[in-house]
Amino acid sequence: MESRKQHRNKETCTANLNAVKDALYVLNGKWKFPLIIALQDGPKRFNEIQKSLGEITPKILSKELKDLELNEFLVRKVFSTTPVTVTYELTPYSESLDRVINELRDWGLKHRERLVKNRKKESSAAEMKVSL
To answer: Where is the HTH hxlR-type domain (predicted)?
Structure first.
């Protein structure tokens, strides 16, 4: 913990805060990362993405896809077929999030494990009180 606190000054903290705010601004909401993960196995059409994500509405999905396209994480490709085919595909730039996604996944797994373990402890303690 100490190494994290040393060498911190106001400018460093402000720069770090601004960088995190920028990242959160681009990747805010509950759908950005799941959307990127859903596209990691290749291009998909709108309905395929919606089915893979489950609870997302078409309106929200459309907005999130536009945001990710605007921020250069994915590209929308239109094919002149009948009817027109539109696919969404990750850009090479999206790979810059791979480490972040992996860290979030690992942290999420550990966090869930911790909560389950602590709930079991609380449940066991409550059961012991009742039996006394």
So the answer is: 13-116
CB 87 within 8 A of CB 43: yes
Show the 3-state SS of the chain. CHHHHCCCCHHHHHHHHHHHHHHHHHCCCCCHHHHHHHCCCCCEEHHHHHHHHCCCCHHHHHHHHHHHHHCCCEEEEEECCCCCEEEEEECHHHHHHHHHHHHHHHHHHHHHHHHHHHHHHHHHHHHHHHHC
Q: Contact, 74 vs 88, CB < 8 A?
A: yes
User: For the purposes of burial, counting CB atoms within 10 Å of the CB of 101, is it exposed (0-12), middle (13-18) or buried (19 or more)?
Assistant: middle
Q: What is the mean pLDDT of each run of 10 residues along the chain (132 residues)?
A: 63 92 91 96 97 96 97 97 96 96 96 91 72 62
